[in-house]
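Why does residue order matter? Because the sequence determines the fold. Keep that principle in mind as you read this record.
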Amino acid sequence: KALSVFVGTVIGVGIFGLPWVAFKSGFFVLLGYFLVLGAVTIIVHLILGEIVSGTKEERRFPGYVRQYLGKRWGTIAFIAMCAGLFGAQLAYLVLGGGFLANILAPYLGGSALTYVLAFFVLGSLLIYRDIKSICLTEFLILIAFFAILAFFVVKSIPHINPANFLHIDLKYIFLPYGVIIFSLWGSAILPEVKEILGKKKKDLRKVIISGILISALVYLVFVVAIMGSGGKATSEDAISGFGLVAGSGIAKVGFLFGLLTCFSSYLTLGLTLKKIFWYDIKMPEKASWAVASFVPVAMFLMGAREFIDIIGFTGALAGGIEGFTLIFLYRSFLRKKKAGQKMSRLYFLLSIFFILGIIAEISHFIKR
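Structure:
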């Protein structure tokens, strides 16, 4: 159960952007990033897992930072976490609205903006009422996901062209970084995973390692199926382009499942954001709901509408700040909880890595 919850959290909307990123930069460029960033995210999650397991108090990431590093660092961690959650909400809004448009627009007409706003209105109303309308467990959603993934792989096999994997474009060499960080990051769920494990919290390391490896493998299989069969038809949302190759009926299945996945996650993150501002910041409930609901749609209306840019920038910036902060959090944790045990200096290389990643993503974002 712990593994299914962790994998179900890690595997998210980022999967739909990976085939297009692979097509633009090159499959083997993406593969190289997965090898490096897969190892980095495992290390980072293991560090946080050790902190979560070694701290009796039940907290979230900003709470751990505040406890071990002080209020200023806690504020930085809080801002990074909110930036990541708002970025993810915006991504769900953009992609979910797009999926809704692909399903209904052929019959009802209307612009893409109409369906994004419809997605927002329904989602924000349910968040206000504190209702999660998709009453499926993470386990059932995960089973459905793997079933549809297997279906897509089978349908893609006759269309896969090996030549599609040989293209490399150095112009987009930094494109995969933020998208993969976004796609492999699941630190927010680790306290819940520890609770699920109960007395078996030593198994948290196994859950983290196997969960990230499974997620990375699933992503790569999806990329091989979608980009390998689609080639130049590969689209930013993955499903539209695949439909051109495998048929509109198959695309509709993908749109429907993508919509359910996005909407369920949109509600979950929306409720999380609402409770953060309500419980942690002590804002009134209605004001907390307004911030959680209207900030992402305001960002959309101000022009943040490119799905790949959103998840790439969010992954690099929010994930980078969290990763950087975590290194210093771990050092303080070891000093206070492990009788002055010193952290290996190699971990500081990770903090430099995250800073360079932020700089590279910002540079790439500006150039585009």
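Residues 162 and 228 are 7 Å apart (CA to CA).
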